[in-house]
Amino acid sequence: MAVQRRIQEAEGLNLVPVMNLVTILIPFLLMAAEFVQLAVIDSTLPQIGPTKPMEEEPEKPPLNLSLAITEKGITVLGADAVLFPDGKPEAAEGEEQPPTVPCKSGGACTGVDDYDWKRLTSILAQIKDEYPDDENVILVPDSRIKYEIIVKAMDASREDVDNPGPDGKPRLLFPYVVIAGGAM
Question: Model-level pTM?
Fold first, then answer.
């Protein structure tokens, strides 16, 4: 006698709980994710074209403050000359003039912390005392200068955090920064 076997049909999977879980998790994960975080540093472009004609000759020549950032330090330029508010350092005959703010190590700057940012800010504060109406500074970084050094120079030239104004806020020095190419 032949034995008959019953063939059992497989039951379908109940996917409703899994689909409910996915439906809840996807919006939660999308809300919790931070895709891109942007930071903006305000800067202006140098003017191209003729400048506006001046009607009267000013008492002081325009400052045209520039910071030449090299691996040896930062040279403060203005009024078509290198500025040394503390007095011009002596250089031997035939030697190149040292930067206004040399590196802390004395030779070539090795990183962001090797530049003397406090000294740069104090020099810019002295210049701001002489030219209170000027608000522009031009950064002229060497091609080998890293971006973080340029940002630190922008921060050091914008405001004097160590010497706040009468309202307790940092003293505003040169808030309008222009980045130019090609250091000396």
Answer: 0.66
